[in-house]
UniProtKB/TrEMBL annotation:
Pfam family for this entry, one: Lipocalin_4
Record-annotated Lipocalin-like domain positions: 46-114
Protein origin, superkingdom: Bacteria
InterPro entries (alphabetical): Lipocalin-like (IPR024311)
Record-given protein name: Lipocalin family protein
Length: 127
């Protein structure tokens, strides 16, 4: 009986991160890539209401996506639940009948940066 050794290669996953995507992410910045100079232009997320906790995105192991939005004078929390699917460096979030697919630009233990494939809007979250 022969013993064969095999090695795993990252060739199939070129450019793909191996950090798990599950976790709770706090909305930090949004922006675009400037079409003239190709540079990212990010600003503090205007969705985060002053005086309230920051909005968030939570991706659970069960493929459930929870979006938290704090609003109003009392910083009332509204949670919207949907599902998510990660395929290589694509993240698709579906709420009701509406799906949105984004490129995962960066995924580390501290940050998730995605770019919406339709609108080009970049969203940066921190863990």
């Amino acid at each position: 009986m022969g013993v064969f050794a095999t090695s795993c290669s990252n060739d199939d996953n070129e450019g793909e991160t191996i950090v798990p995507i599950q976790g709770k992410y706090n909305l930090r910045q949004t922006g675009i890539i400037n079409p003239i100079n190709g540079q990212e232009e990010l600003v503090d997320a205007p969705q985060n209401q002053a005086g309230c906790p920051g909005d968030y995105l939570e991706l659970k192991l069960s493929s459930t996506a929870v979006m938290g939005d704090y609003a109003g004078t009392d910083c009332a929390l509204t949670e919207t639940t949907g599902t998510y699917v990660r395929s290589h460096n694509d993240l698709t979030i579906t709420v009701g009948n509406v799906s949105s697919t984004s490129d995962i630009m960066n995924l580390t233990n501290k940050e998730l940066k995605i770019k919406n494939k339709t609108t080009g809007v970049i969203t940066v979250y921190s863990r």
